[in-house]
## 1
Amino acid sequence: MQTRRWLNPSLAQTLQIAVFLLYITGGFALLFGLDLGSLYFVARAHLWQLRDVIRIVVALGSVAAGYGIANERKWAYYLGIALAALPLVGDLLLCIDNHVSPLKLDLITLIFQIGMFVLLIHPQSRDYQRVWFK
C-alpha cells in the first residue's frame, strides 16, 4: 500500500529543510503576497491585474512542490527549483534595472530565497532525487 505524506523523514536532510521552506514560502505568499523579485516579470509585462492570480499560483505551486518532494516525485523537485529560482532572478534583474546593490533589498527574504535554492541544488539533494525519486 502506497502512503502519501506531507513530511518524509527518510529524505536527505537538505531536501527535508527545503520541503519546510517550500511550505513556508507558499503560506507567506498566500497570506502576505509576493515580493518585488517575484513580481518583476509581472511589472515588465504590465500585468498588475493578474498579480493576485499569480500569487495564488505561486503559493499552490510551492505547496505542491513540497508535497511532491515529500512523496519523492521528480516533477516536484524541478518545480521546487523553478519556484526557488524565480524570485532570485527577478531580484537580480530588478537590481540591474535600477542600478542598486542586491544588499539594498530585504536581507532576511534574500537569505531564505538563496537558502532554499541552495538546499535544492545541493549535491546531496541531487544525488538523492536521482536515485530515489520516481
## 2
Amino acid sequence: MLRRAPESAYSLHDDRDIGSDVLRMQVPIITDKSAFLALPADSLDREAFNRFASDYIERTSDDTWFELDDLTQRFERDFEYFFLEPGYLYYFDTNKLHTLINAGNTARITLA
C-alpha cells in the first residue's frame, strides 16, 4: 500500500533501483481529481526543472510540493498529466522519470 499525503508530491524520479525485472502496477483505492501522475516529455529541460523543483523541496520531510500554477506555466508542454481512476489496474514504465502530485485535501491510497 502506498499513501501520498494531501498537498504533497514525490520528486521527479525513476524506480530503476527496484530492478529491471520488476514491474510495478497500481490500483488507486482512494483518490480524487486533484491527484495525478505526471510523465515528462522527451523535450523536458531537466536542468531547468531541477532548478525550479529545488525551490519547492520541504527541508523537514521527504515530500516535495510544487506550486501547480508555476509548474504548468513553466512546463505545460513538457509534461503529460493523467488522472488514474480508482478501482482500475494501471501500468507505466517506472524506470522512466515520473512523479505523482496529490493537490487534493485527502490522502491518496494505492495498492502497488
